[in-house]
Structures
1.
Amino acid sequence: MDPQTPAPGSTVEFCYRHPSERTGVHCTRCGRPICTNCMIPAPVGYQCPECVAEARRAFREGPARRARAATGISITAAMLGLLVAIFVAEVATGGGVGGFTGQLRGSLVQWGVMFPPAVADGEYYRLFTAMFLHASLIHLAFNGWALWIFGTFVEREFGPVRWLVIYLVGGLLGSAASYAFGSVEQASLGASGAIVALFGAFIAYNLKRRDTAISRAYLQQAIFILVINLVIGFGAGGAIDWRAHLGGLVGGFLLGGIFDAVGPFRTQAARIAGVLGVLAIVVGLVAWRTADLRSLPL
């Protein structure tokens, strides 16, 4: 039987990817209706392009997942352990205890907080090191909780290598946004920019799958979290660096879409170009802010 012709008595539906195309065929993996342009032969029946892409990604990530299962190590847990170890070292050297309101204290300067005048003076490493520092136990606890929740999801769906790229590149965009648009006297530190990047990737992943009930539920939760963070961020009197959060969110969302093959990012070369594009935004923001600060009178 021609797959374009529905079986007798079957209900004619429309392809979920091409709403104008009538069909009576469903993807054997997800069950959604697909037209002849979307039908990819499978061992049993046909599958849609999205399910085939997910299966291929799962196959590529299989060795990494098996290795993680054998060793019992996840990159999310490893990063959480690293953040805790760095905080303990901060406390041991007299920094990172109590609140943090932008005033440089104790050894936090030496540990590498993001301080705009220092960055403009050539200490660009602070954009990176600030992502691993925390000012208090509560600060670390909140970030650690969010890292575990969203980091576990992103690691499972994207794999550890892409997780690390989202965390580091998205976090750098958060640091760059804080540096570019924050007050020149405002110091900043914390892993929240990088963690919000994981949250952005979480949103991108579920937005692509918003036709499923579970992804719609996740997106509703994400909207709620965003609203709460906006209220807290703008009402905290400068104690929370909402610019770093926004930069990390945008970076993570872009990287999540890039790695999930949204739009033109369906080849490895295109995905590498996309990541380099996000890094170019980081470099552009830092260069612009540095030139602006260096032009100020001493």
2.
Amino acid sequence: MDFAPIAFFAYNRPHHALNALNNLSRCDLAAESDLHIFCDGAKTAKDSKQVKEVQDLVRSEKWCGQVTVVSHDKNIGLANSIISGVSSLIERSGRVIVIEDDLLVSPFFLTYMNEALARYEKIEQVMQISGYMFDLDLSSDTDAIFLPFISSWGWATWKRAWLKFDPYMEAYHILSRNKQLRDEFNLYGSYDYFRMLKMQKKERIDSWAIRWYLSVFMEKGLALYPAKTLVKNVGWDGSGMHCGTNWDEDKIDEEFKVIAYPVDIEISCLYEKVRNHLKQRAGRLLKIKNVFNVLKKTTR
């Protein structure tokens, strides 16, 4: 099998980058995979030292079979970094696996990604392979399921799908005028993704992921998810973009492998269970955020 290139994105967190790269290097197939590390330039003078540490760090070891480092002189932002990095590798190789510097992955993460990319390569409706799954018990006949929304925590895609990416959100006005579509986009009240879309439209956030989700949604695309997570996000320490306080419920079962794949290309019957879990989790995160904001105000 010709393994997909890995795109790894880093900025100014040397400790996170070191942990993530060490973890990735221990994956099955790491030694046979090409790794492309994209380092964004410093946004402020304050960030310069840590950015330099990251750029030196990523060149210090041979994390995978072959390593290429792309360092930007100027800061282009996380969203632009991911969009340009993914686009360049997609154009060259036709597919890509994407990891950010605050993600730890299962030893079988790369095996799953490459097998799923090969298995569903020609299935137009399948637009993403996701490595993350919420912390809930899924009783399924297969080790992976299809869901109608994407995850940004460890994922992969193909050129045929990425060509549908709409970075300018041209479909935004369709959703803004259609409540039924907005409800579907928000997973029927499970998470307010449309609010994120509005914030992106007003340039209050800079998210490639909400734009990618909109693109997949408008194509009625599906993402493949493992029944148990193969990815853990350890960036909930306030050190990264869009990160708040620590959230440590997700655990990787290092014995879990995706062996049985779904044959039918359709939304899993477990979709409602996943939606209900996401709704409860979003509520708990909001409470934690509100308490955190109150504490910040009272300690100023």
3.
Amino acid sequence: MISKLARSALFHNGFRPFFLGGSAFAGLAVLFWVAVFSGWVVLPSGADPRNWHAHEMTFGFFGAIMGGFLLTAMPGWTGKAPLSGEKLFGLFVVWLAGRVAMTAYLIGDPAASFPIWAVVVAVADMIYPALLLVYCASQIVDSRGMHNLPVVVMVALYGLSDVLFHAAPYSFFDRNLGPHLALGAAALLIALIGGRIVPNFTRNWLAARSPGLVPAEFGLFDKLALVETAVAILAWTFVPDSATTGFLLALAALLGLIRLSRWRGLHTTAEPLVMILHAGYLWLVLALAALAVNVLAPSLLPGASALHVLTAGSMGVMMLAVMTRATRGHTGRPLLADRTTVVIYALVNLGALVRVSAPVLPFDYAAAVAVGGILWSSAMLLFAVKYGPWLIGPRS
């Protein structure tokens, strides 16, 4: 039966199982976190649900969507055969095993667990990013496509951050170092890959409607902006309280805004499937600005809100933008956003906005967090319901 499942359409392309599994997991995980945060669900006294939420949204949700995208895009970049069938099924099972292990461990009672159990959980969780790194690196080396090496470096940093997360309780590492490095790698991947796909997809769409409008080509300015953003993110990871870090983040936000303004996003409002890509990148710009404000004037913007501009906002919106477009394109559906897809986009943006604004909204903070989480998770679950049959079934 397992062999038959591995040969099904679901495991024909990398985006299929990971987009479906990642979106369903994110939606359910956030609903569970809302229930715990609001006091509707009571966990054992030694449980660490906040740490579980931070880890699983970064390594569980984003890790799945990042993997699904890279497993699909990398063969197109390198000309190598894509991962499919039993190997893809095995990789997905490894990702899923990590989610089960981390959930059982962190919402149980880690303090009461035997040390060997912590090691087993860490290994189960880290196998997936390690295998994803090996796959991406082998694709690059075999094809000699060294211009894609920065993507491999980001995946390596992402995997390293998971190691730091698990090592923190038993070492001198700061507990936030691993999650910050992971979020930094995610931000850099959005800046790097978003800088490819946003103008390219916009160019393709405008070519048939407004041939005279062309997004700016990738050039020296983009390279400088990416390097400065990388420096700012590394500074935020390792010296988050430095004023220099704040100014670097502010400069990265400014350069990102200039990049975005050169991609003709204001001319794509007629097609939400294209416009949402620009919205996702705008959330990244806002995230860099929010982190800068939090570093330079923490009293003006709490750290949790600044982080959620990046996670719920940039990561959430950009992931859904990529998932909807890639699923439509690779399953033979029209590259047009239907009403359900527009609702998905509205829910994820509204959910992120409410979560980020929770401290200043004129009603209870916990209620605002719950509303924002429910809206955001509804977008993920609606994607799984709407796009799930296409991901499971054969190409149209």
